[in-house]
Design brief:
Blueprint: H1 6-11, E1 16-17, H2 23-28, H3 40-43, H4 45-57, E2 62-64, H5 72-75, H6 84-99, E3 104-109, H7 123-140, E4 144-150, H8 153-166, E5 170-175, E6 178-179, E7 185-186, H9 193-203, E8 207-211, H10 216-229, E9 234-239, E10 245-247, E11 250-252, H11 257-261, H12 264-270, E12 274-277, H13 283-294
């Protein structure tokens, strides 16, 4: 059975469930500090596939790919700049094999770490890097390109355009927000939720949203603000399992699966169409969210 389009599934009234954190699981599997997660697509393919499978088994309607830092700029730091296509294609293939024909695969594209405002990179260089990554993700089997954890509206727009103009994939664009001392929400580069939505939509994004940075409670308000800015858009939210705290020198995320699932109704009422997790979330969190969506 063909999956169709994510936007069509949302328009039909479905609330879709996305996956949770990958890095959290990789660390439990032995990933060392400073190791390149994306290199696992080549060296530990079955382990990468197993992470995607764990989220499918938990009830996710879609899984991302292990390619958040898969741009040329990020991979060059590990001496892997010549393997961009190979790494991203393998990332998508791992998630595709796990998802089969029953779930969507979202090709994860994170920020490059280069600042346009500081002239560390040109717009043309960014475009080519995002194009290279997006094309490889589509080739590996991605249904959509998920430009995520963005702070700079211009970089986000370039990434969206590169994916839209060079693949047939739907394009998602999500931003990460901090809470200011005044109590409102802005990205590191100062964008409000409305400004972030406007930048993504103008570039051609099919789905917009917020991920990382905040726990479920704050995401309810962020989603409400995004819904006001984009009444007809599909909205995606991937919250952290609360804000990180240090316990005996170890960083932990305090929100249990039950706590996160307890916010699902409020998120849907605020306007969320796709709900998943980010840092600190596990298949157990996604299973709880799936159960709450089902109710």
């Amino acid at each position: 059975m063909a999956l169709g389009k994510i936007c069509d599934a949302v328009k039909s009234g479905r609330i879709l469930v996305c996956d949770g954190a990958w890095g959290t699981t990789f660390m439990k599997m032995g990933m060392k500090a400073g190791e390149c997660p994306e290199a696992w697509n080549l060296t530990r393919f079955e382990d990468v596939k197993a992470v995607a499978e764990s989220y499918i088994e938990a009830g996710a309607d879609m899984v991302e790919t292990n390619s958040f830092g898969g741009s040329r700029f990020k991979l060059e730091r590990y001496g892997l700049g010549d393997k961009v296509a190979e790494i991203n294609e393998a990332a998508a293939r791992a998630s595709r094999e796990a998802a089969g024909d029953g779930a969507f695969v979202l090709g994860s594209v994170g920020p490059t770490g280069k600042m346009l405002i500081l002239e560390e990179v040109t717009k043309e260089e960014l475009y080519e890097a995002f194009k290279e990554q997006s094309v490889a993700l589509e080739k590996g089997g991605a249904d959509a390109i998920c430009v995520e954890t963005m702070s700079d509206g211009e970089e986000a727009a370039i990434a969206v355009r590169a994916a839209k103009e060079n693949t047939r994939c739907e394009v998602i664009c999500t931003f990460t927000f901090d809470k200011t001392v005044q109590g409102d929400f802005r990205t590191m580069m100062g964008l409000t939720p409305r400004q972030a939505v406007d930048a993504a939509v103008a570039a051609g994004a099919d789905i917009v949203g917020a991920n990382c940075g905040r726990g479920m409670a704050d995401m309810v308000e962020i989603v409400r603000l995004m819904r006001q800015a984009a009444p007809g858009m599909a909205l995606m939210v991937q919250a952290n399992a609360g804000l990180p705290v240090s316990v005996d020198g170890v960083i932990v995320y305090p929100e249990t699966p039950e706590v996160m699932a307890g916010y699902v109704k409020a998120l849907v009422e605020a306007g969320a169409n796709i709900i998943g997790g980010c840092c600190g979330t596990t298949p157990e969190h996604i299973r709880a969210i799936r159960a709450e969506v089902g109710r």
